[in-house]
Amino acid sequence: MQIITLTTDMGYRDHYVAAIKGNILKRCPDANIIDVSHTIKPFDVAEAAMYLSFCVDDFPEGTVHVIGVDSEPMINFGGSEGAFPSILYYKKQYFVATDNGFFGALLGENEADGFYRIDDVLSNLDLFKFPTKNMLIPAACRILNGEGVEKIASEFHTFKRAFTQMAIIESNLIKGNVTVIDSYGNLITNVHKSLFDRFGKDVPFTIYYRNKEYHIDTISPTYNSVPPGERVAIFNDAGMLEIAVNRGANSVTGGAEKLFGIRLGDIIRVEFTPRGSRSTLDSFF
Questions:
Q1: What is the CATH number of the domain that holds 254?
Q2: Structural domain includes residue 60
């Protein structure tokens, strides 16, 4: 099965996404095209990496992911080393993007299985007018059509890393941020379940957000573990801490974003309280 995914900041108002899909089908008529998102914030490669990281494990081996975010190459612009169309091989899948920080943000602390710069695309300035379609898609379709990546690109050993907010652990405390607010208004954080696990089992904790009045001290297995309209904290399918309102949504009764007045980047604090360690709540704000 030939699967290609698209993650872009192009939106749906214009013709750009249609042009990309048409170009894929012209080159690879049997391709199955999957949209990850076309509403990434303009030029925000860290957000693109985050969305893909949430779903990459759901795709089979050999899937090709095209990331059309900030995709115009830069060649020694402003004294930098430039940003070149490239291919990452990771988890037996291919990621085709410009090396603008996306690859490092996607990998985090993990290692690449292979990294390559796409050959013979920078000499024709006409290709720069729509680099996702003219540079990235042809390489992606050649992979889909069975060409080895070594015939398309040259092996390279370094790539850029975009800044990403990381949760940190302090004494009896995890400090994270809201990194995604989904269409329901649910607050997805950068706090992974593995960070909770470091504190051991059955250690009491309280999750604080927005201000002292908003807190949760239980991780629920499902949204419906609490009554409709009640706040709930879960570890979502990607293992990230999520704060929501059961059966709430921004477009209906109001999701967590609207009801709690939370914005992207707001701090989430998880206070673990082994016996005898509790401090006053004011000390955490």
A1: 2.40.30.90
A2: yes
Q: Are residues 145 and 244 in the same domain?
A: no
Mean pLDDT value of segment 73-78: 69
pLDDT above 50: residue 4: yes
pTM score, whole prediction: 0.84
139: amino acid identity, one letter: A
Could you read off the pLDDT of 77-94 as tens digits, one per residue? Answer: 444 577 899 999 999 999
- Bigger pLDDT: 250 or 18? 18
